[in-house]
Amino acid sequence: MRSRILVLALIMAMLLMLTAGTLSASASGCRTHYVQWGETLYSIGRMYGVDPYAIAAYNGLSNPNYVKGGTYLCIPYGPPYPGGYYGYYPYYPSPSYRTHYVQEGETLYSIGRLYNVDPYAIAQANGLYNPDYVKAGWTLYIPYGPPYPGYYGYYYDGYGYYDHGYYDGDCYGCHYGGYPDP
């Protein structure tokens, strides 16, 4: 009799522990989702009509491009993003961006040199957490803005200014003058 009560108490405790996560999720304003193999935050966001970046922020995911199958996510309630379930979540870059289609063998460093932009600015504009990983076929947003100081600009050596132009290892476009050209 005593062992039956103990087993029943253990079963009740386990049921209470299993429902506690569901109760806390509903009390905190979210619903749970079991991540299947092949799902992304984008596809999950489309399914629930929620911004994928809101899901990442709500669950404390440091890399919104990676979700492990077999885990549970808390999907927040909130205003739907444009497009809802059947639409798509377009990213509209500001006019201060241009696009670049990544070719085989390119890196953020080489793309930065091509557009005269800091590679870390490209990584930040595209939400890349690992600037060493760029895949051929990706379309990257390249920001306009101040040039990368390693490649372009004026250099003062104490005697005059050098206009570096686009630097590719040689001093391409360099000239010496007392002051920078207007």
Can you put this structure into words, describing what you see?
- With 182 residues, the chain is of the alpha+beta class.
- The protein contains five helices and seven strands.
- It has helices at 2-27, 41-48, 52-59, 108-115, 119-126, and strands at 30-34, 72-76, 97-101, 139-143, 154-156, 161-163, 176-177.
- A three-stranded antiparallel β-sheet has the order 5-6-7, with no helix packed on it. It has a two-stranded antiparallel sheet with strand order 1-2. It has a two-stranded antiparallel ribbon with strand order 3-4.
- Helix 2 (41-48) packs across helix 3 and helix 4 (108-115) crosses helix 5.
- The chain is elongated and about 80 Å long.
List keywords for this structure.
7 strands; Membrane-bound Lytic Murein Transglycosylase D, Chain A; alpha+beta; disordered C terminus; two-stranded antiparallel sheet; 3-stranded antiparallel β-sheet
The string of secondary-structure elements, in order, is HEHHEEHHEEEE
The CATH topology name of the largest domain reads Membrane-bound Lytic Murein Transglycosylase D, Chain A
Mean pLDDT: 69
Distance between the ends: 95 Å
Count of individual helical segments: 5
What composes the largest sheet?
3 strands, antiparallel
CATH class of the largest domain: Alpha Beta
Uncertain stretches: 21-26, 81-94, 150-158, 160-182
Work out the number of β strands: 7
Percent helix among the residues?
A: 25-40%
**CATH-wise, what's the superfamily of the largest domain?**
LysM domain
Strand content: 15-25%
Query: What topology, given as strand order, has the largest sheet?
Result: 5-6-7
CATH architecture title of the largest domain:
Roll
Structural class: alpha+beta
Kindly provide the radius of gyration, computed on alpha-carbon positions and rounded to a whole number of angstroms: 26 Å
Shape annotation: elongated
**Whole-number total of structural domains:** 3
